[in-house]
Specification:
single chain, alpha+beta, D-amino Acid Aminotransferase, Chain A, domain 1, D-amino Acid Aminotransferase, Chain A, domain 2, 2 domains, 9-stranded mixed sheet, 5-stranded antiparallel sheet, globular
Protein backbone atom coordinates (compact mmCIF):
# COMPACT_ATOMS: atom_id res chain seq x y z
CA UNK A 1 0.00 0.00 0.00
CA UNK A 2 1.26 3.48 -0.87
CA UNK A 3 0.06 6.98 -1.73
CA UNK A 4 0.82 8.58 -5.10
CA UNK A 5 -0.50 11.78 -6.65
CA UNK A 6 -3.49 12.12 -4.37
CA UNK A 7 -4.51 8.46 -4.34
CA UNK A 8 -4.13 5.51 -2.00
CA UNK A 9 -2.92 2.52 -4.04
CA UNK A 10 -2.98 -1.15 -3.04
CA UNK A 11 0.00 -2.52 -4.96
CA UNK A 12 3.64 -3.46 -4.63
CA UNK A 13 4.63 -1.63 -7.80
CA UNK A 14 4.35 1.83 -9.33
CA UNK A 15 4.09 3.00 -12.94
CA UNK A 16 6.50 5.76 -13.96
CA UNK A 17 7.32 7.22 -17.35
CA UNK A 18 10.51 5.66 -18.69
CA UNK A 19 11.99 9.17 -18.98
CA UNK A 20 11.04 10.22 -15.47
CA UNK A 21 14.11 12.01 -13.97
CA UNK A 22 13.29 10.46 -10.60
CA UNK A 23 13.74 7.03 -12.15
CA UNK A 24 16.71 7.89 -14.38
CA UNK A 25 18.72 10.13 -12.06
CA UNK A 26 17.27 9.83 -8.56
CA UNK A 27 15.89 13.36 -9.02
CA UNK A 28 13.70 13.46 -5.92
CA UNK A 29 13.91 14.81 -2.40
CA UNK A 30 12.60 12.82 0.54
CA UNK A 31 12.23 12.65 4.28
CA UNK A 32 11.54 9.75 6.64
CA UNK A 33 9.93 9.83 10.08
CA UNK A 34 8.21 7.79 12.77
CA UNK A 35 4.41 7.79 12.92
CA UNK A 36 4.05 5.79 16.15
CA UNK A 37 5.45 8.84 17.97
CA UNK A 38 3.96 11.46 15.64
CA UNK A 39 4.01 15.14 16.60
CA UNK A 40 2.86 18.17 14.65
CA UNK A 41 6.08 20.05 15.42
CA UNK A 42 8.23 17.17 14.19
CA UNK A 43 6.14 16.77 11.04
CA UNK A 44 6.46 20.50 10.34
CA UNK A 45 10.26 20.25 10.59
CA UNK A 46 10.31 17.50 7.96
CA UNK A 47 7.99 19.45 5.65
CA UNK A 48 10.00 22.65 6.11
CA UNK A 49 13.20 20.83 5.08
CA UNK A 50 11.44 19.46 2.00
CA UNK A 51 10.16 22.94 1.10
CA UNK A 52 13.59 24.53 1.41
CA UNK A 53 15.23 21.75 -0.63
CA UNK A 54 12.60 22.11 -3.37
CA UNK A 55 13.15 25.87 -3.45
CA UNK A 56 16.92 25.44 -3.61
CA UNK A 57 16.59 23.03 -6.53
CA UNK A 58 14.04 25.34 -8.22
CA UNK A 59 11.44 22.57 -8.43
CA UNK A 60 7.67 22.77 -8.04
CA UNK A 61 6.18 22.58 -4.56
CA UNK A 62 3.65 19.75 -4.09
CA UNK A 63 0.07 20.13 -2.95
CA UNK A 64 0.82 20.06 0.78
CA UNK A 65 -2.79 19.32 1.70
CA UNK A 66 -2.57 16.28 -0.55
CA UNK A 67 0.69 15.25 1.13
CA UNK A 68 -0.95 15.55 4.54
CA UNK A 69 -3.89 13.42 3.40
CA UNK A 70 -1.47 10.72 2.29
CA UNK A 71 0.37 10.82 5.60
CA UNK A 72 -2.88 10.54 7.56
CA UNK A 73 -3.95 7.60 5.40
CA UNK A 74 -0.74 5.58 5.67
CA UNK A 75 0.15 6.35 9.28
CA UNK A 76 -2.72 4.06 10.28
CA UNK A 77 -0.79 1.16 8.76
CA UNK A 78 2.95 1.83 9.19
CA UNK A 79 5.22 3.05 12.02
CA UNK A 80 7.61 4.69 9.52
CA UNK A 81 6.72 6.82 6.51
CA UNK A 82 8.83 8.22 3.69
CA UNK A 83 7.61 11.27 1.78
CA UNK A 84 9.19 11.59 -1.67
CA UNK A 85 8.70 14.65 -3.87
CA UNK A 86 9.44 14.67 -7.62
CA UNK A 87 10.67 17.77 -9.51
CA UNK A 88 7.20 18.45 -10.93
CA UNK A 89 5.56 18.36 -7.49
CA UNK A 90 4.24 14.80 -7.51
CA UNK A 91 4.20 13.17 -4.09
CA UNK A 92 4.91 9.52 -3.30
CA UNK A 93 4.41 8.33 0.27
CA UNK A 94 5.46 4.84 1.28
CA UNK A 95 5.46 3.02 4.59
CA UNK A 96 7.74 0.50 6.25
CA UNK A 97 8.33 -1.17 9.58
CA UNK A 98 10.99 -0.49 12.19
CA UNK A 99 14.30 -2.37 11.89
CA UNK A 100 13.81 -5.77 13.57
CA UNK A 101 17.01 -5.37 15.62
CA UNK A 102 16.33 -1.79 16.72
CA UNK A 103 15.67 -2.56 20.39
CA UNK A 104 18.86 -4.65 20.62
CA UNK A 105 20.93 -1.97 18.90
CA UNK A 106 19.59 0.70 21.24
CA UNK A 107 20.40 -1.39 24.31
CA UNK A 108 23.75 -2.86 23.28
CA UNK A 109 25.12 -0.49 20.66
CA UNK A 110 26.51 -1.38 17.23
CA UNK A 111 29.70 -1.88 15.28
CA UNK A 112 30.46 0.42 12.34
CA UNK A 113 33.14 0.56 9.68
CA UNK A 114 34.80 3.62 8.17
CA UNK A 115 33.81 3.49 4.50
CA UNK A 116 36.16 3.98 1.58
CA UNK A 117 36.57 7.65 0.62
CA UNK A 118 35.02 6.99 -2.80
CA UNK A 119 31.63 6.72 -1.13
CA UNK A 120 30.55 10.36 -1.06
CA UNK A 121 26.95 11.55 -1.00
CA UNK A 122 25.62 13.70 -3.84
CA UNK A 123 24.44 17.15 -2.69
CA UNK A 124 25.26 16.22 0.94
CA UNK A 125 23.19 19.01 2.52
CA UNK A 126 20.04 17.90 0.66
CA UNK A 127 18.20 14.63 1.18
CA UNK A 128 17.91 13.67 -2.49
CA UNK A 129 16.91 10.35 -3.97
CA UNK A 130 20.44 9.83 -5.33
CA UNK A 131 21.62 7.71 -2.39
CA UNK A 132 23.75 5.24 -4.33
CA UNK A 133 27.04 5.88 -2.46
CA UNK A 134 25.61 5.54 1.07
CA UNK A 135 23.58 2.50 -0.03
CA UNK A 136 26.70 0.81 -1.39
CA UNK A 137 28.71 1.65 1.75
CA UNK A 138 25.96 0.28 4.00
CA UNK A 139 25.62 -2.83 1.81
CA UNK A 140 29.36 -3.50 2.15
CA UNK A 141 29.09 -3.14 5.91
CA UNK A 142 26.06 -5.43 6.18
CA UNK A 143 27.80 -8.05 4.01
CA UNK A 144 30.44 -8.20 6.78
CA UNK A 145 27.77 -8.43 9.49
CA UNK A 146 28.52 -4.82 10.50
CA UNK A 147 25.55 -2.59 11.24
CA UNK A 148 26.65 0.79 9.84
CA UNK A 149 29.34 2.70 7.94
CA UNK A 150 30.85 6.16 8.46
CA UNK A 151 31.38 8.41 5.44
CA UNK A 152 34.50 10.61 5.29
CA UNK A 153 35.88 13.45 3.21
CA UNK A 154 39.07 13.39 1.14
CA UNK A 155 41.12 14.23 4.27
CA UNK A 156 39.72 11.29 6.21
CA UNK A 157 37.56 13.43 8.53
CA UNK A 158 34.46 11.62 9.77
CA UNK A 159 31.27 13.23 8.45
CA UNK A 160 28.16 11.13 9.13
CA UNK A 161 26.95 7.57 8.90
CA UNK A 162 25.13 6.31 5.82
CA UNK A 163 21.80 6.90 7.60
CA UNK A 164 22.39 9.48 10.32
CA UNK A 165 24.39 12.20 12.05
CA UNK A 166 27.35 11.50 14.33
CA UNK A 167 27.59 12.41 18.03
CA UNK A 168 30.63 12.13 20.28
CA UNK A 169 31.26 12.90 23.94
CA UNK A 170 34.54 13.85 25.62
CA UNK A 171 35.76 16.17 28.36
CA UNK A 172 32.23 17.03 29.49
CA UNK A 173 31.03 18.17 26.06
CA UNK A 174 28.97 16.72 23.21
CA UNK A 175 30.33 17.15 19.68
CA UNK A 176 28.80 16.77 16.23
CA UNK A 177 30.33 17.63 12.82
CA UNK A 178 29.27 21.06 11.47
CA UNK A 179 26.94 21.43 8.51
CA UNK A 180 29.75 23.26 6.72
CA UNK A 181 31.67 19.96 6.58
CA UNK A 182 29.13 18.74 4.04
CA UNK A 183 26.59 16.73 6.01
CA UNK A 184 22.82 16.43 6.07
CA UNK A 185 21.03 18.79 8.48
CA UNK A 186 19.19 15.93 10.17
CA UNK A 187 15.91 16.59 11.95
CA UNK A 188 16.94 14.41 14.91
CA UNK A 189 20.28 16.26 14.92
CA UNK A 190 18.55 19.62 15.30
CA UNK A 191 16.27 18.23 18.03
CA UNK A 192 19.20 16.81 19.98
CA UNK A 193 21.11 20.08 19.68
CA UNK A 194 18.09 21.93 21.02
CA UNK A 195 17.57 19.42 23.83
CA UNK A 196 21.20 19.61 24.97
CA UNK A 197 21.11 23.40 25.03
CA UNK A 198 17.86 23.35 27.03
CA UNK A 199 19.60 21.06 29.54
CA UNK A 200 22.48 23.57 29.72
CA UNK A 201 24.86 20.88 28.44
CA UNK A 202 28.02 21.79 26.58
CA UNK A 203 27.72 21.08 22.87
CA UNK A 204 30.01 22.04 20.00
CA UNK A 205 30.11 21.59 16.23
CA UNK A 206 33.65 20.83 15.06
CA UNK A 207 35.37 18.80 12.36
CA UNK A 208 36.11 15.20 13.36
CA UNK A 209 39.79 14.61 12.58
CA UNK A 210 41.14 11.05 12.53
CA UNK A 211 43.32 11.58 15.61
CA UNK A 212 40.67 13.55 17.51
CA UNK A 213 38.07 10.77 17.43
CA UNK A 214 40.43 8.45 19.32
CA UNK A 215 39.89 10.58 22.43
CA UNK A 216 36.10 10.25 22.46
CA UNK A 217 34.56 8.72 25.58
CA UNK A 218 31.32 7.77 23.81
CA UNK A 219 30.00 7.89 20.26
CA UNK A 220 26.68 7.31 18.51
CA UNK A 221 24.51 8.38 15.62
CA UNK A 222 20.97 9.71 15.20
CA UNK A 223 18.13 9.92 12.74
CA UNK A 224 14.37 10.33 12.92
CA UNK A 225 13.66 6.60 12.87
CA UNK A 226 16.21 5.14 15.30
CA UNK A 227 16.63 8.42 17.27
CA UNK A 228 20.01 7.58 18.86
CA UNK A 229 22.14 4.44 18.78
CA UNK A 230 25.42 4.02 20.63
CA UNK A 231 28.49 2.87 18.69
CA UNK A 232 30.85 0.62 20.65
CA UNK A 233 33.28 -0.42 17.87
CA UNK A 234 34.63 1.45 14.84
CA UNK A 235 36.69 -0.51 12.32
CA UNK A 236 39.07 1.84 10.50
CA UNK A 237 41.59 1.15 7.71
CA UNK A 238 44.42 1.30 10.29
CA UNK A 239 42.88 -0.44 13.26
CA UNK A 240 39.86 -0.86 15.49
CA UNK A 241 38.62 1.73 17.98
CA UNK A 242 36.66 0.61 21.04
CA UNK A 243 34.24 2.80 22.98
CA UNK A 244 32.23 2.01 26.13
CA UNK A 245 28.98 0.17 25.52
CA UNK A 246 27.46 2.31 28.29
CA UNK A 247 28.16 5.89 29.34
CA UNK A 248 26.30 8.19 31.79
CA UNK A 249 26.14 11.00 29.22
CA UNK A 250 24.12 8.88 26.76
CA UNK A 251 20.91 9.65 28.68
CA UNK A 252 21.32 13.31 27.68
CA UNK A 253 20.78 12.51 23.99
CA UNK A 254 18.71 9.32 24.06
CA UNK A 255 15.93 11.14 25.96
CA UNK A 256 14.61 12.37 22.57
CA UNK A 257 12.74 9.10 22.06
Amino acid sequence: MYWYCGNSIESGSIELDINDPGLLYGATVFTTFRTDKFSESGYDLHCDRLRSSIDELDWIQPDWNQVRSGVECLMLHFPVLRITIFPDGRELITGRYLPPNLATWQQEGVTVIVAEQKFTRSFPQLKTGNYLAPWLALKQARNQNIQEAILTNDRGDWLETTTGNLWGYRDGCWYTPPLSAGILPGIARSQILSSLKQQNRSVSEIEWKEEWVKGLEAIGYSNSVIYFILIHTVITPVGTLKYPAQHPAIAEVSCLE
